[in-house]
Batch of 4 targets.
Target 1
Amino acid sequence: MPSYGAGDIQVLEGLEAVRRRPGMYIGTTDLRGLHHLVREVLDNSIDEAMNGTCDRIDLWIHKTNDITVADNGRGIPVGPHPTQKDAKGKAMDALQVVMTILHAGGKFGGAGYKVTGGLHGVGVSVVNALASEMIVEVHRDGKIFTQSYERGKPTSAVRAITKQQLPSPASLPWRDPARLTGTVTRFTPDKEMFPVIEWDTTVITQWLRETAYLNKRLWLGLHDERTGGEESYYFDGGVISFVRHLNRTHENLHPKPVYVERTFENNTIAEVALQYNDTFAEKVYTFANNINTIDGGAHLTGFRTALTRTINAYARKSGALKDSDPNLTSDDVREGLTAVISVKIREPQFEGQTKTRLGNAEVAGQVATAVNDALGQYLEENPTDARRIVEKCLTAFRAREAARKARDLVQRKGALDGFSLPGKLADCSERDPEKCELFIVEGPSAGGSAKGGRDRRTQAILPLRGKILNVEKARADKMLGNEEIKALITALGTGIGDYFDIKKLRYGKTILLCDADVDGSHIRTLLLTLLYRHFRPLVEDGRIYIGQPPLYRLQLGKEVRWAYSDNERDKAIRELKANAKTKREDRKKAAGEKAAADGDKATARTRRRAAEEAEEQADVASTNTDEGTDDGKGGREPAIARYKGL
């Protein structure tokens, strides 16, 4: 047995702990963790805006994959820190303290900030630790100060520089130099920490757009030097503009969103906008101090409580609900609802550094009070709109009851039939779900080819006929009456809704294998929407994959090449021509056009791992379903063209 004594106890100094265990601070070191670095630096600038000292933030993505964030806030303080000393016992500069020491900043109850998103105080120093290089530039007190770092360690002292010594891009050009203040941070992610460094402008622009919605009259700009692209965001309407943007492709039940903004005694600000539309899905986004709390928390609980209570009270008062009728449930009143809930708190309590859930219990009551008063007043003052809203909730209640009866029937029938599997399912022999894969393919032709090329022990094939029902636009009872969807539910074995039980999952991996054309992209969008809405734990658990069938098969003698695009095809042809006199070329649009052996080699065993990408596409499919499956608004073709290559 190895010895374990006092000498084995290690103490990690400074930012060394961050580099040793980055997951503790940014979650992961994949692309999500990489983008988290940008968010941490951006949040510092947003904190300045929330405190009324900044009205513009710019972000550059450089050709070298460096990132620069610039704001015209007050600038990080510089000068000797009263308590922190360097290795020589000399007072450390405040700028260096902020950039190199964890839990350092003006966000811990001092006078520096009233409201902040970066309460944990580890953000910018963590970015510094995980960057191979970082340069910070501070404009303050009519001077320009700078300091550089490598992997969290200073490589220069804090020093004053002249305007002519400024690096590119020129900093803070939008103000009179005599009044110039702000902070510019440029960093290079460390390749030793991040195996892949690729910036996704879709993710970044979403942050910037959300931030502009949540902070009225704040200008945010993105400058992508890789493509020359420029984006800017500025909104006067705040969360009202946000809700209108989310509902832009829908028919709304009432023209103006219900809106409330209220400040409470402890300086907590609650801002809520909501609007009902003609769809059946709920879109509710919650934010705390501009942080997207994707897992909700106290503010979401308070909102849902007030929404359910207020609509039930009005429905009974207006006679829409009789004394003998049961109350509408929270699910009933949220069907077709779009809402944005934003709270700003002096001392928010988040779960962990990634801040996905708000824990301040008192916020639930504050949000509930604000929503109850505003929504109740709106319903009383707008009886026509109120009647439409209540009728939609009652329709949702009736549909829920019908769906429950349909689910009960399906469950009882499944139990009586010994959980009979769909007849068109070609099942596998392996009984361990973690070793099994389910391929969902288009139609009998693709199913026949896939069945011939599969590994019968571990791979099952389920062919679906044509395009499945768009569950985003269909009620649960209609969905459960669709034969193709019922076949998929039965094959997966988990059930849906209240019946969902991941322990009953029959296949550890589900692979969507659609044709490489526009119709195939449409079918994949519909399947992803179904999985995201009704089998979401499978998506979040990384069990959904996207098969990537090749477009072309090129053969020279016994040598076979597969091409997934026209460019790959042309490259393969050039390489084959260099050593061949003849070649054979086939275009493989559909999975069913492959021979059995080809299907085995080209797809079943050479598909790309796409768990994270499938989750991202499912989110895109869900968010943009009306655009991607539009029946008459002109959105379908451009949406599919935009996402089909993901």
Target 2
Amino acid sequence: MILADFIPQTTLLQLPNDMNDINPTDELTKLSTTSSSDIQTAEKEPYLISPIKIPLTSFQPLLAASPDFILTNECTRRRNRLVLIDNQLQTIEQRIPKTDALLDAIWYEKKQQFLLRTVSSIFSYDAITGNMKLIQGFTPTENKEMKCFNFLNSSVLLVAYDEWNAQYIEKWQQDDTDENWKLTDKLPLNLTNNEFIGNMITVIENDCSYIVITIYNDLLEHWRLEIRPIETFLCVKAIILPGSNPTYDYKILSLQDNVSNIKFLVYSSQNSNIIAIDSHWEKILLNYKYPVQRMVLFSKNQWII
């Protein structure tokens, strides 16, 4: 895992040429849109990213961040534990109950907890107490396997299932009285028989909420990015993504309020290419030394890879 200071004002991200024992990346640069003036500006500030390498071993890596902690894990044949890293880069290791493989994690701002997902269950995890328990009231529809989940806002959880021809994304909300989760709505996804959903995030633009979704089409053999306003949930913008492998889902990282002119990054563990989507919905190709499994932002100015 790489922890790096992230400078929002820059248009070129550049690593120092000599990092001695710490050499986790090549330069991360805009390959297609960087101008000579941008390069000159960046050369004046050669340490725009200061990486710190934190070794971790995991067959199924998790990565999420709260205002105070980075949550990741060590998952091997002999070891299964969560690893918390605080603002001072101190680590706390916590063993967890035996469950199905943990596949994803997100921060639940309202309850100040992490939510951890398996294919069929969601757990809450308190980073302070170490308490991990199954959330109450949530049951996957028709015993389907979950593909991804994310928050629409501070209290509404979106859930999508791992299936071809998916017709909807579910909205779940926790009751303030009994704290049980209840299915409140279904957003019409209406994919074809040749399509399935990869991942999704929520983006706020001019006080309007949008859901950004990656979708694979087997007939056309390509991935695409769809932007859908939550009000109508109709696609208002589609962006074709490179690559045709359905095994490696694209993941999305929102950079709003952190990097001017860049809305979010799209990446896959299949290759080292990272795609930035700017404010004009144009693609900017970035390059990284290794394929990236997960990325999150921590404390608004640190980029966790």
Target 3
Amino acid sequence: MQHPTPPQGGPAPRVRPPLLRHHGDHPVAGVCAGLARHLELPVAWVRLGMVVLALTGGVGLALYTWLWLFLPQERADGTADDDPELRRRLETGLARVREVGWPAVLGAAVVCVAVLVVVQALGADVDWQTAAPVGILVIGLGVAWMQADTAASPGRSRGTWLRIALGTALVLVSVLALAVDTAGPGTLWLGLLLAVALLAGLALVAAPFVLGLVARRERERTALAVQTERAEIAAHLHDSVLQSLALIQRRASDPETVARVARAQERELRSYLFDDPSQAPDALSEALRRVAGEVEDAHGRRIEVVAVGETEGEWLDPLVAASREAMANAARHAGDAQVYAEVLEDDQGAIEGVDVFVRDRGPGFDPDQLPADRHGVRESLRGRMERAGGTVRIRSSAGGTEVHLHLDAPAVVRPEGGVRGTDPREEGA
């Protein structure tokens, strides 16, 4: 049995609510409520912004009227009260505008300036002191709004935030320019001072509520994460442990099957609880545990694997295959076995090679007196390791057998023409 692999692509991006005029009891037309839900902001903030824009040359009033005319009304069920085909075309057009990006904004600005120049050439009086800030305001809003969906996604970049900051700066500059044109520089500075004082007072009053809201959302997010984790664990236990227990109950009269299922379930549960999900499937420890599980299932014996250090690569394939053969020999002739793997590193942390020890407590044998038809040790162990440039050493006695496999890393050149010296640990044994 294998536990479910965690998703590789990461969480799906959150979908922003559609931009619709909100259905319900609203002071005017539900524009601010619908805009607040689309931007995921408090409706009071949006209404305050509309009022501020309305006081700066009537921009807020024009924007509200435009949204009132062109935004569809939301039905009671949350869908748009408009033609689906028209809605699809509108969404497609907005998506294309976002894809075009800067050329669309600059093109629209050039067209607007050209129209104003033509109107002035025809004799109309164009107030550039008002038209220029309004144009900058519209450009800033366009730049910021086109980045809104991108900023809400997990893959947002630094450039996205820079464009949002640029759009915000354009909006602020245009609002200040309109205010200067309307009230004059002296009155503007006094108004700014009063506005800062009012905002500071509001911040002091709202700080406890905002902090409480943030803390509550964090608690809700934590509770949701815990609930999701519990659901995943429950699903895994149902798919693995509970089904294995049911199989053991049905096969209670078959001791071999019960033991095999129990060993497989123990191995799978240990892997689920203690293994690193981000570990590469071709890493040394994972490969050794995989072949150990295959030997356990084939021979009904317990193979315990302990690995110190980690490495990966195709150069390990002969070592893993030889280790599997050593495990199978131990399971066939001795019973349970223990596998110890160690990745060898130099002083700089570079990998020099890998040692694998397969030990059992069987009756032992004489490696030099093997019959001619015993190809497992000669070919599957010695032959495979020698072809890969590794070594095999077998120590056996009446108390058990130890098979020591060693393979140097590809970048390490062994001395003495490829002959590795005696391992000091073996000399002291």
Target 4
Amino acid sequence: MVSLLSHPSTEFNCEPLALHHSYPAPHIPIAFNVFRIDFLLSDRLLSNPYVEPPQPRDWEIHPTHPVHSVPYYLAPLWDAGLAARSAERKNAAPKTKSQFQASADDTRGVVSKELREKLKRARGAKGLLMDLEEEVRKFVQRCAEQEHAAEMEDIPSDVDSSDEEIVFVGRNGQMSDMRGRSKSRRHLEREMMIFDSLEGDQGASFGRFLIHHIGNYYGLRTWSVTVGNPARREAYIGLRENKAKSGRCAPAVLSPMPRPLWVIL
């Protein structure tokens, strides 16, 4: 038996085997890729008729935005312009702050953006809004009727500290302060509790949120108090007092009433 390895005429060439190997040497693809990339870049540059070699300034560090050099003698004018802009921003800040603290006339009949966004996310709250608003509209209508009746009878709707106190003496000698009774009666008529809940009730905060926005929509003042034991949160609405030229406070009632919120939203 003759072995091929011991035969002198047998030559083995391993190079073709390496070329057809499925995993070539690492240096072959790397050199090929670099050569291919250089070839493509050179080809693109050669095919561009407007190509220019890089200048030394291209390698310098400089801003890419246009730079405006201001002469030195214009510096005071430049500072004056910056000072004027700063003053405008300072004056605009209190103005924007006062917009959030707008008067009742500015917020009457205006639906706040916050209320719209809240009701978009809570569609089921429209029924609660309807119930609360109906109570508020009844209160406003009742106050408007009382003011109209007071005007017809020529009775002042406000109370001034300079008015004389009227005291009636009964048959048994007892005195009654009618001014105090009428004042407390008017005070009860000008405010009303709309909503109450336990202090720890997390869901009730949304009801108070609706009441405050309903009050702003109808030009009323709203507030919440904590009373009792266990503690309860009560939400109230009341008439705003407009300061007249005479120095007296007159209740402000929105007339005519705007469209209901639950219809608009």
